[in-house]
Structures are given as structure tokens and as C-alpha cells.
Write a structure and sequence with these properties.
162 residues, alpha+beta, 60s Ribosomal Protein L30, Chain: A, five-stranded mixed beta sheet, 10 strands, 35% strand
Length: 162
């Protein structure tokens, strides 16, 4: 049986084939998956917020923010033998879980998380090859580090593979 490495909220991890990486409860959070298909090394970050720049004091949890989680995950994957120039990304989550009567941008956490994730990946020249983002439902995702297939499970939509 294949070992599953669980990734919690505001957490990240990396794994080498044949392990799988899984996170649950992606609502407005975004699951960012990186994969090197030659070395079969994957990474998964479950980010909660777009930017660490809001944090003014103390130590920050780098896995919590798109702008800090992605560079950290790249470094961890490279330390396992991944080639940075071979990395590709897949995104899932970023839902707008609640309807607000206001147009306040601060309440649009899901869409802001997606945008920040895309910007952080672009800065590192990592192409996004697939995404399942937005809408108004939660997701559970699992990366197969053997194939690079990202399975996305939703309560009412079944399983989608990217």
C-alpha cells in the first residue's frame, strides 16, 4: 500500500515516488502542487492567505502564505533532487465559500489566494499546467508522485483528475 503524506492547513510537504501527498478541507484555501516528472518528486502546500506582508511582528508560518510557501517548497524539492527548471504546477481550491453583501475585496479570500499563488509561481517561472479553482465548494486533493496526476474530490461533483 502506498504511503500517504498528509498536509494540514497552513502546512506543506514534499515526497518522492511512490508516496502520495494529500490535503483535505480546501475551501478558500489553495492547494498548490509542484511536480518534477523526471525525478518523480512532488510538493503540496495548503495556503490560507495570499501574502505574508500583512504580518508585522514575530515569526511567520511560511506555509500559510502563497508568497512564502512556494519558494520554500521549491527549496525542499530541490534538496530531494528535483530540478527547478522541470517543475510544473497545478492549483486547486480558492473557492468563495460564503456570499457577502459587500464588495469588499478583503472578503474575497479565495480569489485573492488564487491570484497570489499564480503571481508567486510566475516570479519563479513555474508554469501552471492545470487548475480547478473558484466556484463555491470545498475540495480534497491527492498528488500521485509516480504519475503527477492530481485527484480532486468534491462532495457533489465526484472525482476530477488533472
Amino acid at each position: 500500500m502506498t504511503e500517504i503524506v498528509k498536509v494540514g492547513m497552513a502546512d506543506l510537504n514534499v515526497a518522492v515516488s511512490p508516496k502520495r501527498l494529500r490535503t483535505t478541507g480546501l475551501g478558500s484555501c489553495v492547494g498548490i502542487v509542484l511536480f518534477d516528472k523526471i525525478h518523480r518528486i512532488g510538493g503540496l502546500a495548503h495556503i490560507m492567505l495570499p501574502s505574508s506582508e500583512m504580518v508585522k511582528i514575530g515569526e511567520i508560518n511560511k506555509a500559510k502564505y502563497a508568497d512564502t510557501a512556494i519558494p520554500l517548497m521549491v527549496d525542499m524539492m530541490v534538496s530531494l533532487g528535483a530540478n527547478k527548471s522541470l517543475l510544473v504546477a497545478k492549483l486547486a481550491g480558492g473557492a468563495q465559500m460564503f456570499q457577502f453583501q459587500t464588495q469588499n475585496e478583503m472578503m474575497r479570500i479565495g480569489p485573492r489566494n488564487v491570484t497570489a499563488s499564480k503571481e508567486a509561481l510566475a516570479k519563479l517561472n513555474i508554469p501552471i499546467i492545470a487548475e480547478d479553482v473558484g466556484e463555491n465548494y470545498g475540495r480534497t486533493i491527492e498528488l500521485d508522485t509516480e504519475t503527477g496526476i492530481l485527484s480532486i474530490k468534491t462532495a457533489n461533483k465526484g472525482i476530477n483528475e488533472l
